[in-house]
Amino acid sequence: MKRFSKLIFKISALIIVVVISLGLCLTPFEEGNWSNIDPDTRGITRVNVRFICQDQILNGQLYPPGPPFYIHIYGKCHPTDCDWGEVGAQQAGEFVYATYDQGFAKRYVYIKKSKYRPNTLWMYMYTDFTDPNREDYSMQQWFRK
Questions:
Q1: If we measure between CA atoms, which residue out of 70, 74, 63, 65 comes closest to residue 143?
Q2: 21 pLDDT exceeds 80?
Q3: Is residue 24 assigned to a domain?
Q4: In angstroms, how far is the first alpha carbon of the chain from the final one?
Q5: Domain range for residue 110?
Q6: What values do phi and psi take at 14, rounded to 5?
């Protein structure tokens, strides 16, 4: 009976470890391909967010190396959307944030789950122009999968 109790304890401990390790990398809400809810937007038309699960440590560093998120933005252009490329992103609290350095401007991008629109991704972007004669601006937009 004592052996059986130890076996049950070991199996329970193993199940707990497996459940905890599986829970480390749940797919975040932000991951996926998002389209602007405004089909006539003059701003950002699409946002693709990738998440890299870094649930391992190798030589004291998170593995795989690099940022945990990647953001790929497409802006409104004619005849096809402008590909801004993909940049690494970090998470701070409820926000995933990234910086696009386009030479003529730096764009600071913040995304998170919308509090007021169900199943919607909210984006805030601040544009800081290098030319002091151009006025900096910010905008916010919403996206759906």
A1: 74
A2: no
A3: no
A4: 55
A5: 30-144
A6: -65, -45
Q: What is the pLDDT of residues 91-122, one digit of tens each?
A: 999 999 999 999 999 999 999 999 999 999 99
Answer whether residue 52 shows pLDDT above 50.
Answer: yes
Q: Give the range among 3-17, 27-41, 102-116, 128-142 with minimum mean pLDDT.
A: 3-17
3-state SS class at 116: coil
Cα–Cα distance measured from residue 107 to residue 123, given in angstroms and rounded to the nearest whole number: 12
pLDDT at 123 over 60: yes
Could you tell me if 109 and 99 are in contact, meaning their C-beta atoms sit under 8 angstroms apart?
yes
Domain-located, residue 1? no
Q: Residue 64: its pLDDT value, please?
A: 83
The reply to whether 118 falls in a domain is: yes
CATH number at residue 76: 2.40.128
Into how many domains does the chain fold? 1
Q: Quick check: 48 and 61 in contact, CB under 8 A?
A: no
Name which of 76, 74, 93, 77 is nearest 85 in CA terms.
Answer: 74
DSSP state of 68: S
- Determine contact, residues 91/107, Cβ cutoff 8 Å: no
Does residue 11 sit within a domain?
no
